[in-house]
Amino acid sequence: MAQFIVGERQGGAERFFVKLSIALHEVGITQKIFIQSDKDRSDELRLSGLDVVELDFNGHIRDVISRYKLQKEINSFKPDLVMAWMSRAARRMPSGDFVKVARLGGFYPSRFYKKCDYLISNTPGIKDFLVEDGWPECRVEMISNFGELPDAPPVIRESLGIANDAFVFICLGRLHPSKGFDLAIEAMRNIQNAHLLIAGSGEENEFLKSLVIKYRLENRVSFLGWRSDQISLLKTADVCLVTSRHEPLSNVVLEAWSVGCPVISTDSEGPSWLIENGVDGLMVKRDDLEALATAMQSLMDNEALRKSLSERALVKWANSYSKDVIIEKYITYFDKLINLRASSH
User: Fold this and answer.
1) What three-state secondary structure class fits 8?
2) Does residue 243 contact residue 179 with C-beta atoms inside 8 Å?
3) d(Cα 225, Cα 242) in Å, to the nearest integer?
4) 2-146+323-344: which CATH number, 3.30.930.10, 3.40.50.2000, 3.40.640.10, 3.40.50.720?
5) Cα–Cα distance between 170 and 186 in angstroms, integer?
């Protein structure tokens, strides 16, 4: 099979693309990987043993040339299935005698996927949206993401400028208004004896830093920039905050669950599907600053509750969102589609 993404340098979908490509390779699936030119991403994929082709779709002329190269590589490789990630890749789906699948993790109109035979959504809500938008239900499958990242030890707190006995909250992701990291910063005004780590980069970087200065939180909020050691950071933190105003799924919830880090989340689209409030995480209304601060304080004060949430989340992750479970679902669905195509010829 082949996989194809025209993505940003950083982002949840891009990170899961790498995770899934490597995981499929590990179970023996032969792949050819096509990506927008990105040295770090290509190096990570190649070091894992994958065959990677970098293309450049920036600008009309380069886009035309890259589409030609993509088609030529596909003609030579002769895959039985090609999976395009999100609309930018799906609109550039090459032609050929193979199953054409698009994988999407957001609420994007089905017209963007006209070149595809089937769609894979990563939440029930996205699947429902696609069906309501006119895509045949029999040609859309729901397969969620998995949470695992390569195991690694916790980050030493002293290296982050944090005392070993501090209570640590963490936010991870793109610094974008939809992520609601401003809420986490504001909530820290009402939380004492705790530290907030923000790992990510993006257009809200300066705005968020100005909030920290405004509220005089410089000694209790740290900006780490974009990090590739999410698991180590989650092992270091006491609680993971997912403060999103809009979140189709949330890889961060799954990653936190996979290492037993308890989660407080807003009731955005994906987390409200994943989390059972009070059982495997705490959930508050979006943009409800008071509720967020109350939830943060409650987990600071209640070690037994933190332990209960993390233990139950770990069980749910193992049963439904672990790498083995999700990879088996992908392989089963791919086999089904390939067999359907073979029987129709």
Assistant:
1) coil
2) yes
3) 17
4) 3.40.50.2000
5) 14
Render pLDDT for 183-237 as a digit per residue (tens, 0 to 9): 999 999 999 899 999 999 999 999 999 999 999 999 999 999 999 899 999 999 9
Q: How confident is the model at residue 344 (pLDDT cuts 50, 70, 90)?
A: confident
- CA–CA separation, 206 and 248 (whole Å): 25
Q: Please report which residue ranges of the chain form alpha helices under DSSP H.
A: 12-26, 39-47, 60-77, 86-90, 124-132, 181-187, 205-214, 230-236, 251-258, 269-274, 289-301, 303-316, 323-344
Question: What residues contact 307, with CB distance under 8 A and at least 6 apart?
Answer: none
* CA angle centred on 48, ends 13 and 18, rounded to 5°: 5
Q: How far is Cα 202 from Cα 178, in angstroms, rounded to an integer?
A: 11
What is the rounded average pLDDT for all residues in the chain?
95
Tokens of 224: 């780490």
- Sorted by where each begins, the domain ranges of the chain are 2-146+323-344, 157-321
Identical fold between 2-146+323-344 and 157-321: yes
pLDDT at 164 over 90: no
Give the pLDDT band of residue 297 (cuts 50, 70, 90).
very high
Class of the CATH domain delimited by 157-321: alpha beta
pTM for the predicted model, two decimal places: 0.89
